[in-house]
Request: fold
Amino acid sequence: MSYLILFAAVFFLSTSVLFVKWTSAPAETAAFYRMLFTCLMLLPFVDFKSLITTRLMTRYALLLSGTLLAFHFWLWFLSLDYTTVASSTLFVTSSPIFVLIGNALIFKKNPTRKGLAFALVAVLGGMRVAAGDVQLGREALFGDLLALIAALLIAGYWLVGQQVRASMNTNTYSFSVYLVATVVLCF
Reply:
């Protein structure tokens, strides 16, 4: 059963960007509804007692994390108006490179040589795609830039989340962050 759930999660995550590309709704609207529906699905699994007793600093971290997530989805979905799904997805999934850098700079966790080698390959691949997008025009490069900024934002979300998640239930953490993102995207 767990493999079925894993397959479904990977399938829906992998294909969701196509639905965003096909919609005529503005990027912020698509991002808002993505977060809202996810919040509603998580609602039955939230431990509200532990959420109420959360420390003030953890609440600030949840606000930061949710805001980063909101802007990540908005900019990623907006990038699809300017560049191809493939380019946008490639740049937005470069986020582990920024997590690697953030972990090294903020948390003093030195990356492995293997991690650095993979990051170098990813950067070179991204440069190759961007060079190809030059032929598509400035609009495609602007979309690439938006997706790259979205990657930075999701990396920030992960960096904040790795600290907060140590003290919270996964469903409660996810619900809290998605709720903040939903509220941010509402404005």
The chain has one domain: 28-42+54-186. The chain is about 80% helix and 0% strand. The chain has a mean pLDDT of 88. Residues 28-42+54-186 form one domain.
